[in-house]
Design a protein that fits this description.
This protein has 11 helices and 10 strands. By secondary structure, it is of the alpha+beta class. It has 3 domains: 46 residues, Helicase, Ruva Protein, domain 3, CATH 1.10.8.10; 143 residues, Tetrahydropterin Synthase, Chain A (2-Layer Sandwich); 56 residues, no CATH class.
Length: 289
């Protein structure tokens, strides 16, 4: 059947699908809007599946707390352009509202949390279909007791979630969050540093330290001192506090009669191998095909 421009416009506003796709959907469903939306989703999910092997290394990190429970998660897209899209950001906010009130404590559980248009997993698939890029909830973490504090950087690429025990004020807790965002510690305390990391660092230190003529005990002390200095650089509680470099973060927290139990710092795309695309070569390959 013939469809009119007003129907196409309405369907586009509801789904953000392309104009020609909306036209095809309406023709296939005799102009019934609700059925056309289903048709687009069905066909959109097929397209989304084809995008599943793409690398999504851009996106948004987001943290939220209600005082006791705190959550932090990362949703990835293929380009940073999408992460500035209003509908994408509305999806992030809706996920945050749903996850903070849920009982999800793992990524698998988070994907099954319900929002307005199905589960979070389904919403990501629908977003992939309508936006045209792979959208996925990559990671999620939650803490459920103590005092929680969060920080979201203005660029939406770095988020921090901390869990304290004690009476630390919200202002002081927020300052520690900002420190974590800025200084990017790899570990909370020295106890968390893997032995493999220590072994690699010690090997590098030995290769770059001249111990000629040093007594064995003195040489050992020099090496251990350099290793401890390196560990202090990557360990939150050992780092100099950015707001007061005369004391460590650990001593600052202790002075507030509190203990930091858990630290999460999510930065968009960290650990993902990004693919550099040669667009000229890609176009040439398509022309040959």
């Amino acid at each position: 059947m013939a469809v009119n421009p007003q129907q196409i416009k309405e369907l586009r506003e509801l789904t953000s699908a392309g104009m020609m796709d909306c036209k095809k959907a309406l023709e296939a469903t005799n102009g019934v809007i609700d059925e056309a939306i289903v048709w687009l989703r069905e066909n959109g999910l097929v397209k989304a599946a084809k995008k599943s092997d793409r690398v999504a290394a851009e996106g948004v990190a987001f943290a939220k707390t209600n005082g006791k429970r705190g959550i932090v998660f990362e949703v990835n897209s293929e380009t940073d352009f999408v992460s500035k899209n209003e509908k994408f950001m509305n999806l992030i906010k809706e996920m945050g509202e749903a996850l903070i009130t849920s009982e999800a404590n793992s990524l698998e559980e988070a994907l099954e949390v319900k929002i307005s248009n199905g589960t979070i997993k389904e919403a990501c698939l629908n977003a992939t279909a309508t936006i045209g890029e792979k959208i996925e909830l990559r990671r999620f973490a939650a803490v459920n007791d103590g005092t929680t504090a969060v920080y979201n950087h203005a660029n939406s690429r770095i988020s921090v979630l901390l869990q304290f025990e004690g009476d630390i004020s919200s202002e002081d807790a927020y300052d520690v969050c900002m420190h974590v965002a800025a200084m990017a510690p790899k570990y909370l305390s020295k106890d968390e540093v893997p032995q493999d990391f220590k072994d690699v660092e010690m090997h590098i230190i030995k290769e770059n330290t001249d111990l000629t003529g040093k007594d064995e005990k003195i040489a050992k002390g020099i090496l251990e001192g350099k290793l401890n200095k390196k560990l202090a650089e990557v360990t939150l509680l050992e780092q100099s506090f950015v707001k007061d470099e005369k004391q460590s973060v650990g001593n600052f927290i202790k002075s507030k009669k509190a203990t930091l139990k858990t630290m999460y710092r999510f930065e968009v795309g960290e650990g993902i191998e990004k693919v550099v695309t040669d667009f000229a070569a890609e176009v040439a390959a398509q022309l040959k095909g």
